[in-house]
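Course assignment 3, question 2. Fill in each field.
Student: A.L.
Task: Predict the tertiary structure for the chain below.
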Amino acid sequence: MSWSIPLGRIAGTEIRLHLTFLLLLAWIGVAHGLQGGMAAAVQGIVFICLLFGCVVLHEFGHVAAARRYGVRTPDITLLPIGGVARLERMPEKPSEELVVALAGPAVNVVIALLLFLVLGGVPAVAAMASLENPAHGLLARLFWVNVTLAVFNLLPAFPMDGGRVLRALLSMRLGSRRATDLAAGIGQALAFALGLIGLLNGAPLVVFVALFVWLGAQAEAQSVQMRELSRGMRAEDAMITRFESLPVSARIADAAELLIRTAQTDFPVVDGGGRLRGILTRSDLVRALQQAGPDAPVLEAMQREVPVVAHRAPLEDALRVMQEAAGPIGVVDAAGRLIGVLTHENLGEMLMLETARAGARATPARSW
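Answer field:
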């Protein structure tokens, strides 16, 4: 994920911190400092760090469960709104997805039970209503934080775990595509209700969460549609074949000219044998123009680590490679020569067209 920095790696999974998280820490420190001085600021920051420690453990619950089914987790990114574990894929079987989805909240339940034993009972409910108040005690607030994380994540809406639990249960009877559509619809209905409550009560945070849920449900539905659509297809069926490429000897000025006279924004860089050496994106081009000038070689500005897939490879495999790369990938022939490019944009257009065709087939013709 862009705008994030690596903190370290645990059991093959990289922990990344989104830079906006630092803004959250600064805001917490200033807000608490204005109320109670430096000591209060330090306490506030420590509490937030412990809270997100619980979030990391929650995400590693998913990681451990997914690994049981042979699914790797390349990284976990910490955001101000929580953590995001990027699984290379979701398990295909509904029962496996159910286990992976429940593993995260289960970790929070275990933490809450341990704190319950340490505290000798359930702490005052007032601590849940004002988590930012240090007067309620650190462990009491952490108890309610984990209870809240478990309950909130089990709401039946994507991208929360509850949305995946609902989809897994529905998939056992309806199949993945239909189950995802229903779960996404329920999630968006819940998001609409949350947004309405937030607007009526003047709660911008609730409105933000509602927008997050709405977009998450939409993205999950599109992801499953693309996975269903890709079955039985090969990379060559979806790749862009008409594109401009740059030779390794090209200058930034040459790339700028192509950017002006074509609709492309990403330009493959190929050697004399037609093999992909890298991709020059529009942002790379602009940066190079500003810093190195138009005569700088493209080789110095391009992105070098660009994955490629064989043109006969299953499109499902190509989608997984694209998810890992988080950008365009090359498609090569048996000799390793670049013959096509796969981008998120052209896959999105393919999904849009297929959805339109499916709608046309489902709509009966009218007779007048």
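Instructor remarks: The first strand starts at residue 4 and ends at 10. The mean pLDDT is 80.
Grade: pending
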